[in-house]
Design brief:
Oligomer: single chain
Strand content: 15-25%
Shape: elongated
Helix content: 25-40%
Number of strands: 19
Low-confidence stretches: none
Number of domains: 2
Number of helices: 11
CATH topology of the largest domain: TIM Barrel
Distance between the termini: 23 Å
Structural class: alpha/beta
Largest sheet: 8 strands, mixed
CATH class of the largest domain: Alpha Beta
Order of helices and strands: EEEHEHEHEHEHEHEHEHEHEHEEHEEEEE
CATH superfamily of the largest domain: Alanine racemase
CATH architecture of the largest domain: Alpha-Beta Barrel
Mean pLDDT: 96
Length: 414
């Protein structure tokens, strides 16, 4: 049994099936390249995580779906039915969530480098909860409210940068002073400045009710100690705010954990992490209404695949290539953007084979970095064979572009 089999992906007679249908059949029917999503896998992932977060606590468990991972309307519909919140990072995402039926009261808006016009478009939706990313943003939001929505009640939270971050790549680290490559981290407010921002929000007539953090994306099992340390920093700050007379409704510990992309990847110990969150809150005796997490690719990643067709193979200087009919930037940009990003690729009609070889999966763009996988161990495909890039349900279509005037793949939901 392959390590990646789940509710959505299965193998029958050595052929990949998606929701019980042969992947090659779907490729023939709809054409390639093609994103295929499984609504039942998304639902299963949501319920599994919700059970973990609920635990034995009487507090409300909020799963705020990071919509930038995948905003397909049918997937949003599943999450709406399940009771999810939305984590939106732009006015456009707020509008998409509202059009999908999410009430404004179940939308958390966490923007950065915001304009006055951005804030107007967000505040026009009554009851959206707004995360404050900078002291200057708070002043700008006050100006927007005074100009267009005078005396409107706006609930806010503060995004605190705990001073430590963790991501699978420096480009995916969202907290701390600098990423490992020396890039200064632009997100959040330093702990020493956080209480002042809370008090200023209250002075300006906003209603501060939450504290938020986000360390980065793509945690592995080795990151547990760092993430637990960040939890302790958050809970300590919440206790300090309480001592200063500020009452918090919720703590939001962000995201960072994701699905398993490769056999070699060791999953993040999510159960231990969530247990530590509950224990820290209980020890500090915080009277919270809710605890929130912001899963994106954890929910949607393994609920999607990308199917593409091999146009031909070639050998160059000893390197064997399978040349396929889409490009990374047009479909799943992660391998081209992040050096550390890996996706498992399988031959849809020969999952297991004795004649596998190292083969590089090359896209059809005029870019050296347009490679889906380097030296993937696969049966050598023939022209017309269908390959599947797994775990493509998150940060695939949502990051895709029409670079080189190439089309973005079609999408279907099973």
């Amino acid at each position: 049994m392959p390590w990646w089999e789940n509710r959505f992906l299965s193998v029958h007679n050595n052929v990949l099936h998606l929701e019980g249908r042969p992947a090659t059949e779907l490729a023939r029917e709809y054409g390639t390249p093609l994103f295929v999503y499984g609504r039942n896998q998304l639902r299963e992932n949501y319920r599994k995580l919700l059970r973990l977060l609920q635990g034995q606590s009487s507090r409300e468990a909020r799963l705020c779906y990071a919509m930038k991972a995948n905003s397909h309307p049918e997937l949003l519909s599943v999450l709406f039915e399940e009771g999810a919140w939305i984590d939106a990072v732009s006015p456009g995402e707020v509008a998409i969530a509202r059009n999908a039926g999410f009430p404004a009261g179940r939308i958390l808006f966490t923007g950065t480098s915001l304009s006055l016009e951005d804030l107007e478009k967000v505040l026009c939706h009554n009851d959206v909860l707004v995360n404050i990313d900078a002291a200057a943003q708070l002043e700008l939001m006050h100006s927007a409210r005074e100009q267009w929505f005078k005396h409107k009640t706006v609930r806010v939270a503060v995004r605190m940068n705990p001073g430590i971050g963790k991501g699978f790549s420096p480009k995916a680290t969202t907290a701390g002073a600098m990423a490992e490559d020396g890039t200064p981290i632009k997100f959040g407010i330093e702990p020493d400045l956080t209480p002042a921002v809370f008090h200023r929000a209250a002075d300006l007539g906003f209603v501060p009710i939450g504290l938020h953090q986000h360390l980065g994306s793509g945690w592995s099992d080795q990151d547990l100690d760092t993430t637990k340390q960040a939890v302790d920093i958050m809970v300590s700050m919440a206790s300090e705010l309480r001592a200063q007379g500020l009452s918090l409704e919720f703590l939001d510990f962000g995201g960072g954990f994701g699905p398993r992309y490769t056999d070699a990847q060791r999953p993040f110990p999510l159960k231990d992490y969530i247990s530590h969150i509950h224990h820290a809150i209980q020890t500090a005796r915080l009277n919270l209404k809710a605890v929130a997490l912001e899963p994106g690719k954890y929910l949607a990643g393994d609920a999607g695949v990308l199917l593409f067709k091999v146009e031909y193979t070639k050998t160059s200087f000893g390197n064997l290539f399978a040349c396929v009919n889409t490009g990374t930037f047009n479909s799943v940009p992660r391998p081209a953007i992040y050096n550390e990003a890996r996706h498992t690729i399988v031959h849809c009609s020969r999952i297991r084979s004795d004649d596998c070889q190292p083969i590089t999966i090359a896209g059809n763009l005029c870019e050296t970095g347009d490679v889906f996988a380097t030296n993937a161990i696969l049966p050598v495909p023939e022209r017309g064979d269908i390959l599947a890039l797994l775990c493509a349900g998150a940060y695939g279509r949502s990051m895709a572009s029409t670079y080189n005037a190439r089309a973005i793949p079609k999408e279907i939901v099973l």
